[in-house]
Amino acid sequence: MGTKDDEYDYLFKVVLIGDSGVGKSNLLSRFTRNEFNLESKSTIGVEFATRSIQVDGKTIKAQIWDTAGQERYRAITSAYYRGAVGALLVYDIAKHLTYENVERWLKELRDHADNNIVIMLVGNKSDLRHLRAVPTDEAKAFAEKNNLSFIETSALDSTNVETAFQNILTEIYRIVSQKQIRQGSGEQDDLKTDNTKPIHIAPTEDDTRKKSTCCANL
Ligand code: GDP
Ligand code: MG
């Protein structure tokens, strides 16, 4: 089953991070299955879900990892971040504390993720207009200062969920394909800092038939 799903040009691992309750699991289910769940239940079972999109005529398979609620105990292991080329750092626009904690999550990324990981700051629950606690402009300015892309989403009414994933995957794709061009022409790799190692994304079980696993070596 699903042989078509196994055909892709690039496989990118993207992690979801941010405080518990901000809507990470619902962003994932909205993007990969077009589902939303009103109950707040901690994620069980699923480590990641996948969905493929097209960018520049290439098939990009996104492997999006969700926590199983470990963020509550600040116990996300470095295995979670291993091989990730993108991160959606999610806060809740109606809960200021989840925005304040973004700094802590950025530090977590600096400590555990690849230096070149592409980070998008995501203000979720934009449907809760009447409860807004984080002004859009403030978050946007913070993102700019920290070199992050920024978007507000609602997993509930679907606003910008597609766009958020499309944008981060396109951004990763541009970096990876630019890098391939540079490598092809024998130029120096100026994106890489001294101590970064290439990111190799291991094939997952359902990917075993795919001829090449990608190359997300940012
Ligand atoms: P996680 O802990 O970050 O994975 O958050 P969940 O996805 O489990 O969501 C926590 C709670 O917020 C659940 O009750 C969801 O129904 C609710 N929720 C998630 N996304 C949204 C959203 O965009 N708008 C609103 N109003 N509620 C949301
Ligand atoms: Mg969750």
TrEMBL record:
It comes from Saccoglossus kowalevskii (Acorn worm). Pfam families: Ras. This is Ras-related protein Rab-11-like protein. Transmembrane segments: none annotated. It is a lipid-anchor. Its main location: membrane. Residues 184-218 are annotated as: Disordered. It is found in: Recycling endosome membrane. The lineage of its organism: Eukaryota, Metazoa, Hemichordata, Enteropneusta, Harrimaniidae. GO terms for cellular component: recycling endosome membrane.
